[in-house]
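Case study 2.
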Amino acid sequence: MNRLVVNKQLNKNPAINAGRKSSPAPYLKFQVSQLICELSGGSCKYTGKAMKESHAHLNISEKEWDVMAKEFQKSLDKFKVPAAEQKELFDMVGKTKADIVVRK
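Prediction:
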């Protein structure tokens, strides 16, 4: 999450940049952790808004999604997450793409 917050390319999107002010990094980390925990079959219950509702105003593009995915990949590599688990995570997160990306 830290990588996403400081990513210059993502912050060029005024809606994303403004969203950073209303949803601080610790809050986003908690929400993402809850979501991934629930999606992976863990005991967590995601309590945030639906993906479509929470991202609609951010006007996220396909290119911005790709930037986020690359940053996610870098973090997983940094923490030496094995390839099989990385694939599982990307498959889970990928299911949210249609609700998050609103423009090509």
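The chain has one domain: 2-103.
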